[in-house]
Amino acid sequence: MPENPDLPFTAELLETWSRVGADTTPLEADPLVLDCAHRLTADSGSDRAYVWIAGLARMVRYLAAQPTPEVERVAVEALLATAAAVGEHSCEHESHPYEEALGEQAEDDPAWSGLPTGYLFADSPERPDHDADRCPANIAGIARVTADTIRPFSADGIPAVVPEDHTSSAESLSSILSDYPDSDPDAELEANAGADTWLATKGARAGYVITQHASCWYAVYRVTERSVYDAMIDGLEAVLPRLGDSATCAHNDDEHPDPEFESADIADIGFRLRSPGGRADLRYMLDEYPPEAWLCPRYLRGLADEALAELRAAHASKFGSRDTSALDAAYVRPDGRLDIDKLTTRVINGDEFDTESESIAVWAARRHPTTDDPRERLVLLLLDLWIAQVRDLPYGVGSEVRGLLSAVDPAPLDSDCAHGDDHPGERLRRWDRREFATHVRHLYAGATFPAPESNWSADVWGCPRFLALWARDLILEMDDEYQWMDAEDDDEESVYSGEE
């Protein structure tokens, strides 16, 4: 520690600065920040400016969270003015300590606390003295990085050093969003969404929102794990209040970056926004929009709101209870019989993103135990078996379909049946959807719909062993896909848990 009677500096003051964090109240933190910034301004050209730079660097977790505008302005202006003043001196060093630390300055890292500065003081235990420690270029570098952390893109001259963790995370997420994942997408998306460290700085919060918005389409159309949705929704809900006031936006709508930009490229931008070195690299990439537009509160709130709306809707669709109250009117005739032509046509024509077929599957599972007509019960069961066979059902839908399939008596699995191998084969049950629909229509309403060329009787379609085998195979697939045997079901063993 320098011994200078004119310097109002003590170890206690350094410790006081270090205790100022993101959760410190403005009442406690602002006087310390303003005192430090004013002293830095007064000493900006002196050989003791490093002391006040170190003070603001120690308080950066508070300043990078949500300081009052005036406190932020005073701190950033003092840092940049000092960096300009002391950084004018040339030196012979090939590199400086602050540059070596940049590769670890990931603002979404749980251990992030700003650049280390304790080594600037003679009695620091952090590491031995280095002749570049007090170099004006090193002092100026610390000031620029600290200012850029408080107000992203405020400082020029920061080396474009992207933390290695961000580079690998961006590459992994980009591969997922390009639909050629090189890692487990569910685990990657949940890990990206689940931590709370992205709340630390404006840059980290902006990068988080941008990557979550870019990831949203993949989650909605590819992910079936509920925990991924929960993590993404919880994270976006937590970050929304920290994005700032939309009223401060001074941009026209066309000055905001296009959110429909290639999502893999957006993921890369989102990770680079989370560090001073990454943002320095972005200055060379973001030529279409001004860099600060990526941090605009109105822009980020719009992305977060849009992603939340899509994720919540998908969460409800995949894991919530479906409302099927309107389907009786759509698929039951006035005489109480199924409109089998309309029903089967709607089911077989649904694509992989069709939610109506999923709702029909739930409706059939609910209607099955309420009807006394054995032929209708068989047709409803066959439709659910077929839907479960050809579609990846979301958890909420699958749970109700599985309930119906679990009601199929497994006892016939232990004996032969009179039909031998003369049951509808997998080709018909999985691939020939139009032929399957033709069979079901004839099975339910043979007087109206003619028999297909290769027809099976109602006894074959309703064979207990055939139905038990089909139901068992699908239940095992569902159990593997959704890991149904969770904590609340640990005491229940599926009757289909064994092989035939």
Structure description:
- By secondary structure, this protein is mainly alpha-helical.
- Helices cover 55% and strands 0% of the residues.
- It has 23 helices and no strands.
- The model is unreliable at 1-7 and 484-493 (pLDDT under 50).
What is the topological layout?
Blueprint: H1 11-18, H2 26-42, H3 49-58, H4 60-63, H5 69-86, H6 97-102, H7 136-150, H8 164-177, H9 185-194, H10 202-222, H11 226-239, H12 263-272, H13 276-282, H14 297-319, H15 327-331, H16 340-348, H17 355-367, H18 374-390, H19 395-406, H20 426-431, H21 433-444, H22 458-461, H23 464-482
Distance between the termini: 78 Å
**Shape from CA axes?**
elongated
- Helical region count? 23
**How much is the radius of gyration in Å?**
32 Å
Largest sheet: none
Count the E strands: 0
Overall SS class: mainly alpha
Low-confidence stretches: 1-7, 484-493
* Beta-strand content bin: under 5%
DSSP helix fraction? 40-55%
